[in-house]
Structure formats: C-alpha cells, structure tokens
Amino acid sequence: MTSIQIQDVSRWYGNVVAINGVTMNIGPGVTGLLGPNGAGKSTLIHMMGGFLEPSSGTLTLEGTPIWRNPSVYENIGLVPERESAYDFLTGEQFIVSMAKLHKLGDPRAAARRAIAMVEMDYAAARPIGTYSKGMKQRIKMASALVHDPAVLLLDEPFNGMDPRQRIQLMDLIRRMAAEGRTILFSSHILEEVERLATHIEVIVSGRHAASGDFREIRRLMTDRPYQVTVRSTDDRTLASAIIADGSASSVELTDGKLQVEATDFHRFTWLLPQLAKNAGVRLWEISPSDESLESVFSYLVGK
Ligand SMILES: Nc1ncnc2c1ncn2[C@@H]1O[C@H](COP(=O)(O)OP(=O)(O)OP(=O)(O)O)[C@@H](O)[C@H]1O
C-alpha cells in the first residue's frame, strides 16, 4: 500500500501562483482531483509524478522525496493530458520503447503484459495515429503501467471521450485500484468524479478547497444559497407566496421571470409546486441559474 504525502506545497510560474500551500495525503484506492479549468490540477499532478519541482513545500512517496529521485519514479506512472505525439509508432513499438526507457529486463514481455492489462492486444500492431480517443487513452495507460507502478496519476483521462469509452475506462481504473494501486485522476466534472472516486480532493485557484467522500462534497455544494429562475402564469403572486413562506433569502422580479435565492435548495424545489398550487399559479419553468461549477467552487472557497 503506497501513499503520496503533499506537505504545504506551492508552485509558481513567474508571478502566477498555480498551487498555493496545498497539504493532502493520497492513499490507496481511487481519488478524484476535482477543480475548474486552470485550478492547478495538472501542476499538482506533475509535481506528484516528479516531472516538476515544487517552489516550496515537500512531496514524498512513503516518506521519500519525489523530486529528482529516480528510485521513486519506479513506483509512479503518469498519464499526461496531452495527446500522444507518437502517432507514427504502433502501440506495441511505443510501449516497448517506454519499457526500454525504464531499463526493464525484458522490454517485450513487459510491453505485452501492459498492453494486455488495458486490453489493447488486438490493435497493438496498428499505428497510434489510427486509434480512437479511447484507444489512445488506453495505450497511454499502458505506457504508464509498463513498469508496474504502485501509483498511477491520470490527468483528465476522460476528456473528449464518448460515453462508451468513458465506461470502459472507468472499469479499467476500478480494476487497477482493485489490484491494490493508488490511483489519482483529475477532472472538472463532478458527476465523473462521483461515479469513480472513493475519495475526492477539491482544488480551486491553486488552493485546497475541500476533501471527503462524494456525499460530503455533494453536501458542501448543495447546502448553500442557490439561485433559481422561475417562470409561471403569475410571477407576482408567486413571488408574494415565496416571500411569505420564508424559504428564500431574496426574490426578484425581472424581465418576465422570477430570480430566487433559495436558502435550502432541496426544501425549496420540494415546496415550490405546493406554494404555486395554493396560490392558484401554474409553473412553467424552474431552472438553476448558477449551475456552473465555477460558482460552486467560488462558494466553497469563500465559505
Ligand atoms: N508553464 C506555465 N507557465 C506559466 N503559467 C502556467 C504554466 N503552466 C500552468 N500555468 C498556470 O498555472 C495555473 C494552473 O494551471 P494548470 O494547468 O495546473 O491547471 P489545471 O487545473 O490543470 O487546468 P486545466 O484543466 O485547464 O488543464 C493556470 O493559471 C495556468 O495558466
């Protein structure tokens, strides 16, 4: 069982602070690193994989510093976000060359094993340039698995995948975790992280915003003032009913719609149809108006 310890780590690029005083511990199983675009996920993953030096703080694997420590790299596999640049190589040639870079005793056998792990045997003789997105992601996984590392770091592995490819990759990641590996993957999509991760770490603007299982993160995201847009046959009457009920902290009538800030989202969505019915108003539309992850995150960080 292998864990990565991140201790008060910061990383800046010139005067851009990408990671700011982050402390977390990534243990066995599947951890989701959730954060909006530009939050610092790739920067953190590259530091965890030993590709990037922290500007301050320490990253260790079972107590051994990761930066400039080749013995640690033997235990870590990293799948970067960018597309493979080796389109002219066949899948097998690519994985064999990775096995050679790791100076493995029998590069061909190691490559065969890694290719089998990701179920890509059938396409191993084809150039990578002819692969689908899902297949490219699998072959990149094989390249990170060729030295059989205990830790696997995946940067936005589901980007650009169709639903079927997503499900296949989720199964593969679950299988890798069931074998006892420590797996961390990044994503900016909450639903994706919820489906796969047993533990979630949230980063926003380079800072550690939240940590927990998906229920705790969900609760943090929904137990908050929530903006809802409502349209009905009589917005004015409905507004009075909502104000009288007291389940909203503000009600505004603008451009032919009601803008409501609900203090308790679940209670409000459950209650609204009843309020409307009692007031003799028909509802046309109820939609959350600040659903973007960014606003959720800025709330989490500001709390
Ligand atoms: N090499 C670099 N030079 C300067 N700034 C950088 C560099 N790499 C990243 N940054 C900046 O650091 C911040 C964090 O970037 P990072 O790529 O780590 O975020 P991310 O969460 O992975 O985002 P995305 O999902 O969009 O890749 C951003 O403001 C980004 O512009």
DSSP helical segment count = 11
Please report the total strand number as a whole number. Answer: 14
Bound molecules: adenosine-5'-triphosphate
Report how far the terminal alpha carbons are from each other. 34 Å
Strand order of the largest sheet: 6-7-8-3-9-10
Helical percentage: 25-40%
Family: Belongs to the ABC transporter superfamily.
Keywords: ATP-binding, Nucleotide-binding, Transport
Protein name: ABC transporter ATP-binding protein
Domain ABC transporter: 4-230
Question: Can you give a write-up of this model?
Answer:
This is ABC transporter ATP-binding protein. InterPro entries: AAA+_ATPase, ABC_transporter-like_ATP-bd, ABC_transporter-like_CS, P-loop_NTPase. Pfam families: ABC_tran. It is a single chain. The protein has 2 domains: 4-221, P-loop containing nucleotide triphosphate hydrolases (Rossmann fold, 3-Layer(aba) Sandwich), CATH 3.40.50; 223-302, Alpha-Beta Plaits. The model has no long low-confidence stretch (mean pLDDT 88). A 6-stranded mixed β-sheet has the order 6-7-8-3-9-10, sandwiched between helices. The chain is 38% helix and 29% strand. The chain is of the alpha/beta class. The structure holds adenosine-5'-triphosphate. The site of adenosine-5'-triphosphate (ATP) has 12 residues, from strand 2 and helix 1. Adenosine-5'-triphosphate (ATP) is lined by residues 13, 16, 18, 35, 37-43, 188.
